[in-house]
Amino acid sequence: MNRGGIELLFQYSDWANERILDAAAKVSVEQLIAPNDLGWGSLCGALVHTLDAEYIWRILLEDGIDVEALDPEDFPDVASIRARWAAVRRAFWNYLGQLSDEELNASLDHEALGGLRGEPLWHLLIHVINHGSHHRAECAALLTGFGYSPGDVDFPLFLNSRNKHKNGDTMNCKDIELLFQYNDWANERILDRAEEVSVEQLTAPNEFGWGSLRGALVHLLDAEYVWRNLLNGGVSIGELKPEDFANVSAIRARWAEERSAFWHYLNSLSDDDLAGTVSYEGDGIMRHRVLWHCLAHVVNHGTQHRGECAALLTGFGHSPGNLDFTVFLSER
Questions:
Q1: What is the pLDDT of residues 27-43, one digit of tens each?
Q2: Which residues of 88-101 are buried (b: 16+ CB within 10 A; e: fewer)?
Q3: CA distances from 142 to 23, 72, 73, 202, 219 (A)
């Protein structure tokens, strides 16, 4: 991973955070602090937790200091959260701007990282990005319930918003494989808990998460299925339908087939392939993408919608636990 690649992903994270904050600015103070069973106790709690990760990890990585978490009670409204986020963002970008490619790939090993030993710096920066995607999904679910959906925050939509592609951002096959190993690990944790819900809970309608827990799970699977076919030959295929899966076991069995096919595709790629351009039609427009951008989207998309699944499972009393990238790194 080089600095251009990390900067691109943080640009996306900033863009997505702004879309969440724009929607959050429309809610009432009562909605902002209303208690719930997900999202860190309230929408305010979820927003501050997402901000807090950027605040804490920047200080931890730059200065080696473990600081106390921000307190949601110190933020009376979204405007105060946004103001603090702007300051944290400036500090983070100042830190990123000082890093070299060598520093990004150098191993870190100090006491403040707890059980994480010998991880390259970029792994921990990926955690910050991935953590944001997960908790933005919680925020988006809450905002949608309040009638203020932030809309699509997918990585390709961010890429569409840029005037042109900035050359120089790279990711190699080893890097991509690590992200997909994490993706598989997190999917398994979700499926393990989903196996514990009843069929009635699996298909119960909701206002987010693709209509039901089953809908969200099939959408996650479907993204891997559709993108693999799109990238491996430019074939656009029909989406998988939730009603074709009677239970979680059926979803899991189909996912095992897709995982095998996706890894077969990944193992066929070279570093040069990842840096190359793929073309496909999207929304009636021909899109021309760097291949690794598309693969990074698949992983990020998974993180986002696993956040929805985790929220639903937690509501059913079957929390999947911590899905952080750092937990995956610790368990490797």
A1: 999 999 999 987 699 99
A2: bbeebeebbeebee
A3: 11, 16, 19, 20, 19
In one-letter notation, the amino acid at residue 162 is R
Fold of 171-332: Four Helix Bundle (Hemerythrin (Met), subunit A) (1.20.120)
Instruction: For the domain covering 1-162, report its CATH number.
Output: 1.20.120.450
Q: How far apart, in whole angstroms, are the C-alpha atoms of residue 148 and residue 166?
A: 33
Amino acid at 111: E
Mean model confidence pLDDT for the chain: 94
Distance CA 310, CA 315 (A): 8
Give 332's pLDDT tier (boundaries 50, 70, 90).
Answer: confident
If we measure between CA atoms, which residue out of 315, 319, 156 comes closest to residue 226?
A: 156
Q: How many CB atoms lie within 10 A of CB 38?
A: 21
- The pTM score is 0.96
Letter for the amino acid at 146? Answer: F
Question: What DSSP designation does 61 have?
Answer: H
Measured CA to CA in angstroms, residue 227 lies from 123, 180, 221 at distances of: 24, 14, 10
Q: Which residue has the tokens 């309608």?
A: 205
In the chain, where are the structural domains located? 1-162, 171-332
Q: Are 218 and 245 in contact (CB under 8 A)?
A: yes
Give the DSSP letter of residue 239: P
Q: Count other C-beta atoms under 10 Å from residue 157's C-beta.
A: 16
Instruction: Report pLDDT digits (tens) over 98-151.
Output: 999 999 999 987 556 666 778 999 999 999 999 999 999 999 999 999 999 999
Residue bearing tokens 């793929």: 278
User: Measured at the alpha carbon of residue 15, what is the angle toward residues 100 and 144, in degrees to the nearest 5?
Assistant: 145
- Secondary structure of residue 292 in the 3-state scheme: helix
pLDDT tens digits, residue range 156-199?
999 998 855 556 899 999 999 999 999 999 999 999 999 999 99
Asked, colleague to colleague, whether 1-162 and 171-332 share their fold, the answer is: yes
